[in-house]
Amino acid sequence: MGFxxxxxxxGPCKVVAWIGKTLQEHAESExxxxxxxxxxxxxxxxxxxxxxxxxxxxxxxxxxxxxxxxEIRKHKESGQKR
Length: 82
Description:
Mean pLDDT: 87
């Protein structure tokens, strides 16, 4: 009887914890997606080649994207070393 009561009372808390964990995993997956950054780099290069942006703007955005790519790779490496 006690186990049933525990399940009834703690069920909503377990669901909220599961949803939180799932959201965290999904957010981390999106934040560490190298392919999205690589696609943005390709788009940036295409815009530059079509003269849609200046060289200064291209360099500025490319530096920011490359820095983000480095951060993602370092994050993944640190996670593998644990």
